[in-house]
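Field reference: sequence -> structure
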Amino acid sequence: MNTFCKVILALFVSFTTGISVDAQVLDKSWKSITEMDSNDQWFASSEAKAVAENVLLYQRNIGGWPKNIQMQKPLSDTQKKELLGLKNTAEGSTTDNNATSQEMLFLSKIYKQQPDESYKKAFLLGLDYLLKAQYGNGGWPQFYPLKKGYYTHITYNDDSMVRILEIIIELKNKTGYYSIQPSEEIIEKCKIAFDKGIDCIIKTQYKQNGVLTAWCAQHDENTFLPAKARAYELPSLSGKESAKIVLLLMSIENPSKEVITAVDAAVTWFEKVKITGLREERIVKNGKIVDKKMIPDANALPLWARFMELDDNKPFFSDRDGVKKYSLSEIGDERRNGYAWYTNEPKEVLKKYDKWKKKLSTESNSIQKKVTKAPKDDYNIIVALDGSGDYTSIQDAIYNSPSFPYKRVFITVKNGIYYEKVRVPEWNTKISLIGESKEKTIISYDDYFGKINLGRNSTFMTPTVSVEANDFVASNLTIQNTAGPVGQAVALSVVANRVVVSNCIISGNQDTLYTSGEGFKQYFKDCFIEGTVDFIFGNTTAVFDNCTIHAKSDSYLTAASTTEGAKYGFVFMNCKLTANEKATQVYLGRPWRIHAKTVFLNCEMGKHIRKEGWNNWSKADAEKASFYAEYNCYGSGFQPENRVAWSYQLKKSEAKNYTLEKILGESNSKVNLNWYSDFK
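Structure field:
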């Protein structure tokens, strides 16, 4: 054979081999293709690029993808046109049946071989979709935007929520599993989302007669209780979904006590409910299951039921009529053969559990020596998420601080997002909580009235940070409640005397800042405080000095409940009142209780402030008993001539009574008279 023929033959073999390999890949299921090794050269091929174009077409502009689509199948021009028309609809966007997570994985793998910016953009849009879809309580619905019916439940079904959290943990930990890495800002959001998701998992673990067990495939998004989905998917304990949840919890580095407890309890439950001596036999014809039977077999490996009774773990089954049966043979062919009623997935949990416990014990001893040992100096404590300080938790640092100390305790908090509720008990006086920077040292939580749901006073149980100890100082921090516009949700609660909050961001929506304590005095200096309805409320004497008070919606800045006979209530000095663009009709305040006192002096008022200034909250008595006043303010929102008749414009002689010394000065000679200026 001459050289020319050899070249032609080589080219032919190469060409036909390429066709064969590509055809083999495209004959696989979409799930199989997304699970191929990212180093597979197929991802560098033109065929992979063609599939990627399909993936981009199927993605809705909101960021999600529909489910049960074989993305690798060629599309006609008509189909492509139809998909373009669906872009803005968000139709079918979901995380069910591996949707969205599979497409993001594929985009990551092809981006590694073909770094096209459109793939990166689509991947990040998908991540944004996942973050937006998360509930304030940490769970995810099956569809987003929300779809009516059982789709709004927190969905563990078919491991939907676990897959989302697996994506987020890889990204936040920067493992490199995904070739596309988000910005630091998005990574911080991922950290919060992950912690919230784990918190949701902990809170939804079902207690059976007071004992923690496992999870249902779906839980009510408000009550957290097991919930019904399709007619044959009844409230139950799931042997399948619970397995992946536990494996996720076991993957967490340095797990909390709550996570460890959840895993231990679930493993105990798996051992208790495993089924032995029973084997599933399937009869298959033409690749289709035509019958399933459960056969006694002493040598059969353990199985677990998909659905178990909530009160006694008894396995049950049902047809589309939703009637419980207690034997698989009792239900019809369609459901018996077309659904996975048993699983062996918990075997992976039991297989890894002992090794996890051993590793945990070793790490715990190491961390105990490194992090939770007593600090070198009880009065100078460092908190750092990376373990470089004395503690990784702000609450741990406070709980281990001296009680009723003779001198001030300084707790320095390094940059990071501390997703925890922080309480400063009455006996932990003289604590200074000092952040590394107010923008990057963030204490965050998301409790709200409906989530607490313990009666009419649930508001007061929602704070991210609760200060109950006198002589407390906070500076250079962000304290936020991220529950969103869901009703009362406190970021900072201060029920203590001689408290200073300086150079802090206090962020929330309704009821952001609660300041209380009859006869107590508090000082807020150089702070940014934002919210919606009544976002500064309470009965204490509080001065806001050189603060920005930011309204996020049409509402009321303050809701004072000043005690009858108190000389001062809320006093705003040299503050700037700002607002979002959508906030155009904002009142300075309204009386939570009729003796409310609120005064603004030398403040710049934006145009969002209503001309009448104040609202009586439909309380005629408040017009006589309250004291609402202003002095020497300016800006387009300051319209003294249009204020309600029962408010006041102070005279210069009256304004002289509003100094820090007169408002905050202590008559008790045993304490520092100038506590508000000598707090550093």
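Note: The two ends are 92 Å apart (CA to CA).
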